[in-house]
Amino acid sequence: MGVKDVRVVKLSLREIGGSALTDDIAVPKNRRQSQMSHGIPVTYVPARNTVFLALALGLAETLGATDLFIGVNAVDYSGYPDCRPEFIRAFEALANLATRAGVEGARFRIHAPLSGMRKAEIIQAGARLGVDYALTHSCYDPDPSGRACGRCDSCLIRRDGFRSAGVPDPTRYASS
Hints:
This protein is mostly helical. The protein has a domain at 13-131. The protein has helices spanning 33-36, 48-63, 85-97, 100-103, 119-128, 153-165; strands at residues 67-69, 109-111. Strands 1-2 form a two-stranded parallel sheet. The model has no long low-confidence stretch (mean pLDDT 93).
C-alpha cells in the first residue's frame, strides 16, 4: 500500500467510559433493524472519531501531510453522530482553523471513502482488493477466545452485509 510510517499510539477510552464498549454496560443483542436505526445506541463511544482524527491531524501536521483518511460509514451504521458526513466536514473545517499548517495556508482534507457505501458494497470492494475477511471481525462483544458473538448490532449488520454482497462470511461466530 506504500505506507512509509506506522505509529502505534496507546490510548484507553475506558478512562472516559460512557459506552457499552468502554464501560460495564451491557451490549444490546438480537435487535431488529428498526431498533438499530432508532436513536444513538449505548455502544456509541463518546467523541471516539474526534479523538482518532485529532491524533491523526497532529501526526499529519508534523509530517507535512494534508490528507487524512477514516473508515466511518454513514449508511449501514448504528446511529453514531461522528460517522455522519456533516461531522467529517466540520472536523475538516476545524483542522484548517486549529493548526499552524492550516492557518499558514495548507489545506487539510478529511477523506471518508466508505461513508456513502452500504455494507455489502464495502465487503465487495474489500473482496476485490483482496481483503482477507477471516482476519477481521466487527463484534462489540467477542467471547474470551476472540470469536464474534453473532448477536450484537455490529455482527448482525456484518452478516447481512456478507449475505447481500454474495460473499461468504468467514467470521468465527460463537453462536449461530
